[in-house]
Amino acid sequence: MTATAPHALKPRKAPVQTRSIITVEAITEATIQVLLSHGMDRLTTTLVAERAGVSVGTLYQYYPNKRSLLSAMLEQKMEEVSLAVEVACREARGKPLAEMMHHVVERFIDAKMARADISTALYRISADVGGPELVKRVEARALRALTGMLATASDAGSKSDRFAVTVMLASMSGATRSVLETGASPSMVRKLREHLVLLCESYVTALAARP
Distance between CA atoms of 148 and 39, rounded to whole angstroms? Predict the structure, then answer.
């Protein structure tokens, strides 16, 4: 599939007034519903507008094409996950390493699983709607939050450099995606929480113990 230029994925304008905010929220929810029921290939701006109860012209006031629409939805989901990690890192500052990692992993998985169906659908379309570039921006924020938190551990000074934190974040993201794409049953999600906490806690503890 031909790559879409980054500028073509940007919304035309951001909603400011209450009415326009409500309209964009309706368009976003309609996009989710159409994506889940029809898939990306059969999703059209006409279908989304009909589901949202707005005209196609109104939709085009905000989004120039369907890839811009899907990119905005992907960015919104990534923003939710990124914000969850940042808030968790602030809340866990000054706590022991084990407590830190438990708190961050739980909040990360909560954000991913809040709408598991949406997360799974977005993984499938990510590469076509600017996902790699969005991931870079989101990961940069998460890296700063995690590195700053680990440096405040009450039971050990963290020796986690940027690469180490990148490895940990990649492990969290990769394992969660694998579980989502294989069905994310309740038992799998419980095991994911348990194993990711163990993995991250063991990793940062081993790093802190290194001479």
Answer: 40
Same domain, 53 and 133: no
For residue 63, pLDDT beyond 80: yes
Range of the domain at 147: 73-209
Give the number of domains in the chain: 2
- pLDDT tens, 116-152? 888 888 888 888 888 888 888 888 899 999 999 988 9
Q: Are residues 17 and 80 in the same domain?
A: no
What predicted TM-score, i.e. pTM, was given to this entire model? 0.81
Other CB atoms within 10 A of residue 210 CB: 6
Q: DSSP string of 66-91?
A: HHHHHHHHHHHHHHHHHHHHHHHHHH
Residues whose CB falls within 8 Å of the CB of residue 126, separated by 6 or more in sequence, listed in order? 74, 132, 134, 135
The pair of structure tokens assigned to 184 is 């994310």
The whole-number pLDDT of residue 158 equals 60
Q: Is residue 3 part of a domain?
A: no
Asked if 176 contacts 112 with a C-beta cutoff of 8 angstroms, the reply is yes
Calculate helix-pair angle for 186-209, 162-181, nearest 10 degrees: 170
Q: Are 78 and 140 a contacting pair, CB within 8 Å?
A: no
CATH number at residue 176: 1.10.357.10
Alpha carbons 140 and 98: distance in angstroms, whole number: 23
